[in-house]
Amino acid sequence: MRKMRLSSKDGSEVSQDLFISPELMPPMGRRYRLLDYMSRLDCYRRRMVVNIPEFYVGSIIAVTVSDPYAKGKTSRFVGICIKRQGYGIGASFRLRNHVNGEGVEICYMMYNPLITKIECLKLEKRPDDHLLYLRDALPEYSTIDFNMNAIKHPPGKAVPVNDIKVKMKPKPWYMKWERKELQGIDFSILPEEKLEHAKKWWKPEHTKMDILQRWELPDDYTRQIEWEVTQHEREKRRAADQGR
Length: 244
Hints:
Elements: E1 2-6, E2 16-20, H1 33-49, E3 60-66, E4 74-85, E5 92-99, E6 102-109, E7 115-122, E8 166-167, E9 185-186, H2 192-198, H3 219-243
Parallel strand pairs: 8-9
Antiparallel strand pairs: 1-2, 3-4, 3-7, 4-5, 5-6
C-alpha cells in the first residue's frame, strides 16, 4: 500500500493523500512493461465507471452487483474482507459473513463489469495478510449487520490496525493454523506443548534474511505508476465536475 501527495499544477486543488491500490503494483518476477501498462489501463477505465475505495484485509465492505433474478435486478452483500489477491484486471477479494447461522463467503473479481457499487463501511487493517482462519473462529467475529451504517474515516488520519485476537472453535479446523505464525488468533484452547511443537513449522530464521523477501519495484517503475494514478484521479475529478 502506497500513498503520496496529490495537488494540481495551478494550486487550485487541495492536496490530499492518494491511495495506490495494491493490484496496480506488479509482483516480483520477469515483467513485460507494455503488457503491465495495458492491464493498468483497463483498471483505470473501469475505475472511471465504478468507484473502488481504499480498503484492506479486515475492512468491512458492501458490494452491489447486477442480478437479473433478484428483486430490483441487483443484490447486495456485506462482509469482512478476509483476503485480497491477484494483479491488474485479474485482482480479486473475498468477503465473509454469517447469514442465518451459516458462514457465507463470496469471492469478487474486483473489475467485474457486473459490479455496480463497492462501499467501504469500516476502514481498518489487521496484522495478518489474510483472515481465512475466521472460518474456524467463533461466528461473532465475522457476523456483520447487512444494514450497517458506514463509519466515516477521518481524512488525513492513519488507517487503524485492529489487533484483536479471535477465539477459535474446537478442532477439527480447516487448517492447522497454529503452524502459520498468525498474530490474530487466540490459541488459549490448545495445550502449551502443542503450541511449542507447532512453532517448528514457523518460518525459519534464515529465510527472514532472504533478500527476495525485501524485493521492491524499481524506483522509476514506481514513479511511473504514481504518475499514472495521479493523472487518473485528476481525470476522475474533471469528469465529476463536468457531470454536475
